[in-house]
Amino acid sequence: MVCSATMLIIYTIITLLLSGQIKATDYTAIQKIAQSTSPTTITSSIVLGSRADGSELRSPIRIVHSGNPGPVLSIFGAIHGDEITGTEIIRRISSNPSFSITTGTVYLIPVVNLPGFYQNLRYLPDRRDLNRTFPGSSNGSQAARLAYALIQFLKISKTTVVVDLHSAATLRHNLPQIRATYSDGELTEKLAQSFGTSVILNSSSVIDGSLRAYCKKSGIAYLLYEGGEASRIDETSVHVGVMGVYSVLDALGMKPPDPDIKSIQKEIFYSRKSFWVRATDSGILNSAKTSGDLVSEGETLGQITDLLGVKIGDITSPQTGIIIGHVTNPILNAGDPIFHIAQPAK
Ligand SMILES: [Zn+2]
Fold first, then answer.
1. Of 97, 263, 293, 338, which residue is 20 to 30 A from 280 by alpha carbon distance?
2. What average pLDDT score do residues 247-252 get?
3. What CATH number did the domain enclosing 99 receive?
4. Which residues pair with 177 in a beta bridge?
C-alpha cells in the first residue's frame, strides 16, 4: 500500500514533468518516478545545455516505467546530430500506442546532440565530436558539458543497459549492424544476438571518449546500432532498429516475447575486425557491389573511370568478408573510403 504522502510526491513530480518544469538539476525526480509502484508513462524534456541567448537546450524524453523493479534501459538517438536513423526509431517506438513494459524502466531520448541536429551536423558548433568527449566535465567545452549532462542522467536514472543508435556519416550508407564487446559480459552478448541484425561486430577495442568506452568502464551493458545514412530515413534500417529494440526488451524480460519479432531474425555474420577499401585513383565510381554483399578475396567491387568514361582501374577486395558500409557519393579522390568490409570471425 502506498501512503498518501508518497502519492502526493509522485503526483507533484508527474505534474512538474508534464508542465515541462523539470530541469537538469532535478534528475532526482526521474529517480523517484522509477521507484513508483504504478505503471507510468511521461513525456517531458531534460536540459542538456544552453544557447547563446540564454535559453535552455531541452531534449524531449519519454519515460516508460512499468511500476515494477527491473532493468533500466536508456535508448539514445542522434549523439551525432545528423544521424537521424535513431531519432526515427525512437519516434516510431514512442508513438506506438501499444508499447508497454512489465518490468523496469525505459528512457527514450530521440536527440542527444540538439545543436548538431538543428544544423544537420555530426558535430557540435564548436567542431567537437560529442562521442569523443565522454565523460565530459561540468566546466569544459560545450561538448564536454553536454557529455557530462548525459552521464549525470545515466547515473541518476541508474541505467543498466544503453542502446546507442547511429547511422553512417554523411554520403555513406551502413548495413544494419550491431557493434558490441562480448567480453563485457554475457548480458551484452545475449542482447547483441537478440537484436536481429545480420551482422555483429564484436570488437574489444573501443574509441577513447566514446559513450561506449564510458559504459564499458562503468559496467553498463552497451549496444551500438548502425544503420542507414546521415540526414536520411532509410526504411530498412529504421525497421530493423525498431524490431531490435523490441527484441532487446524481450531478451531483458521487460515484456512478454513477441512471436512477430522472432520472425525477422536471420543468420548472423560474426566479425571481430573490419577495414575500408579505399580509392586507388581519383575519378568516378561504378559500383558492382553494395552493403550486404558477401565478397571474396580478389573479387572486383567496382571500377573507377575518368570524367569521359575511360577506365582508370578496378577496385578489388583484399580480403573475404561482407560489405557493411559503402560510399553513396561516386565522386572520388584517391584515398577516399569506398567499401567498409567486415571479415568473418575465426
Ligand atoms: Zn554516429
1. 293
2. 96
3. 3.40.630.10
4. 226
Alpha carbons 317 and 329: distance in angstroms, whole number: 19
- Residue 147 alpha carbon to ligand 1 centre in Å: 14
Q: How far is the CA of 8 from the centre of ligand 1 (A)?
A: 42
Residue 200 has which C-alpha cell? 555483429
**193-226, pLDDT tens digit by residue?**
999 999 999 998 899 999 999 999 999 999 999 9
Q: Does pLDDT of 24 surpass 70?
A: no
Ligand 1 mean position, distance from CA 226 (Å): 8
Distance 305 CA to ligand 1 centre (A): 31
3-state helix, strand, coil in the chain (%, to 5): 30, 30, 40
Please state the pTM of the whole predicted model. Answer: 0.91
Give the Å distance between the CA of 241 and the centre of ligand 1.
Answer: 14
Number of domains in the chain: 2
> How many angstroms separate the alpha carbon of residue 171 from the centre of ligand 1?
13
Residue finishing a domain among 267, 290, 325: 267
Has residue 192 been placed in a domain?
yes
**Please, which residues have CB less than 5 A from ligand 1, an ion?**
80, 83, 166
Shared-domain flag, residues 213 and 229 = yes
Which residue range forms the structural domain that includes residue 56? 38-267
What does the alpha-carbon distance between residue 159 and residue 154 come to, in Å, rounded to a whole number? Answer: 5
75 and 213 belong to one structural domain: yes
